[in-house]
Design goal:
Distance between the termini: 36 Å
Number of domains: 3
Strand order of the largest sheet: 1-5-4-3-2
Helix content: 40-55%
CATH class of the largest domain: Mainly Alpha
CATH topology of the largest domain: Endonuclease III, domain 1
CATH architecture of the largest domain: Orthogonal Bundle
Order of helices and strands: EHEEEEHHHHHEEHHHHHHHH
Shape: globular
Oligomer: single chain
DNA sequence: TGCCAGGCCTTCC
DNA sequence: GGAAGGCATGGC
C-alpha cells in the first residue's frame, strides 16, 4: 500500500498489541497480509508494520500523526519499561520476552466503558460482534476505500436506545447496564471529563457507581483509556496465571485481593503492562 | 447436554 | 463483608 504516513517505531509489535485482548474493533485486512483496519474515535485507520516502520492510511488525515502516536502510546519509552519490568523476576522476564512490543492503547473513554461492561462473563468474539452491531446501528458512517465503517456512537447518539434495542445487539442481560450507564452519563450523574482528572483511586470509585462496572471492568477502563498503567485488572485468566506463578504452594485460600496486593507491591507503576503480557502469554500457552 | 466465556448484581447470612 | 446463585447467549 502507498501510505501517506510512515512512522518509525521502537519496541512495538502491532500484531500482539492489537491481538492481546485490550481492543475489540480491529480486523485483519482481507487483501493484504499483516494489515489491520480499525475504527478510532473519529476515523478509520489502516495500518501495517514492516520491521520498525508503521505504514498508515486513514479516512481522515487531520492530525493523523498525533492521533496515531497517542493511540499507540508511541511517545512513551516501552524499551525502558520492558527493561525495568524484566528485572522483577524470571516469570515476567520470560513473559515480556515472548510478547515484547505490546503497547497499552489509549482508547476512547466512553467506548471502553461500554465495551468492558459488555465483556463481563462473555467471550471475546461475541464482545466484538456486539460492539460492531451497536456501532453499525447507532454510530456515524465513514467511507474508507469504498467500504463502510461505523464510529462507536456517543452517549448522545445512544440516548433513545432501549434495553430491547441493546439486546438485539446480543449483549444479553448487560442491556440494562448499558442503558443505565448511558442515562447516568447524559444526566451528568457521572462526569467523564472530571474522572480523567481524578487520581486513580477516586476515578475508580466514580466508575464503580455505574451499573455493570465492578472492580475488574473499572480497572480495564482505567488502563485502556485513562493512561493508568498501575492498575492490575484480574480476570479468570490473570487469576489463573498469577496463581500458577506465585501462589502454587500456598496453603491458605488465595483471594483476588491477595493477588492484587502482590501485584501492587511487586509490579508497581507498571502493573497494568505486566498484566497485559501475562494475559497474552497465558491465553496463548506461552507461559 | 452441559460447561464456559476478560464479572457483576442481588439476596441472604 | 462475604458467600452463593442467577444471569443472556453462542460455541464447543
Amino acid at each position: 500500500m502507498k501510505s501517506e504516513l510512515i512512522l518509525k517505531v521502537d519496541c512495538f509489535n502491532l500484531k500482539d498489541t492489537l491481538e492481546c485482548g485490550q481492543c475489540f474493533r480491529w480486523e485483519k485486512d482481507n487483501e493484504e497480509d499483516n494489515t489491520y483496519i480499525g475504527v478510532l474515535k473519529d476515523r478509520v485507520i489502516k495500518v501495517k508494520q514492516i520491521e520498525n516502520k508503521l505504514y498508515i492510511d486513514s479516512s481522515n488525515y487531520d492530525n493523523l500523526e498525533s492521533v496515531v502516536k497517542k493511540y499507540f502510546d508511541l511517545d512513551v519509552d516501552y524499551y525502558k519499561i520492558e527493561k525495568v519490568i524484566s528485572t522483577f523476576d524470571e516469570n515476567i522476564k520470560k513473559a515480556v520476552k515472548n510478547t515484547s512490543g505490546i503497547r497499552i492503547l489509549n482508547q476512547n473513554f466512553f467506548e471502553m466503558i461500554m465495551s468492558y461492561i459488555i465483556s463481563a462473563n462473555n467471550n471475546i468474539p461475541r464482545i466484538s460482534k456486539s460492539i460492531k452491531d451497536i456501532s453499525q446501528k447507532y454510530g456515524k458512517k465513514v467511507i474508507f476505500e469504498n467500504n463502510e465503517y461505523y464510529l462507536f456512537p456517543t452517549a448522545q447518539e445512544l440516548k433513545n436506545v432501549t434495553e430491547e434495542d441493546f439486546k438485539k445487539c446480543g449483549v444479553g442481560f448487560r442491556a440494562r447496564y448499558l442503558k443505565n450507564t448511558v442515562k447516568a452519563i447524559l444526566e451528568n450523574k457521572i462526569d467523564l471529563e472530571q474522572i480523567k482528572r481524578l487520581d486513580t483511586k477516586e476515578a475508580k470509585e466514580e466508575l464503580l457507581k455505574l451499573q455493570g462496572v465492578g472492580p475488574k471492568v473499572a480497572d480495564c477502563i482505567l488502563l485502556f483509556s485513562c493512561e493508568r498503567r498501575e492498575v492490575f485488572p484480574i480476570d479468570v485468566w490473570v487469576e489463573r496465571v498469577m496463581h500458577n506463578l506465585y501462589f502454587k504452594n500456598s496453603t491458605k485460600r488465595i483471594r483476588k485481593n491477595d493477588i492484587l496486593e502482590y501485584a501492587n507491591k511487586n509490579f508497581g507503576e507498571y502493573a497494568g503492562i505486566v498484566q497485559q503480557h501475562l494475559f497474552h502469554n497465558i491465553r496463548n500457552n506461552l507461559i
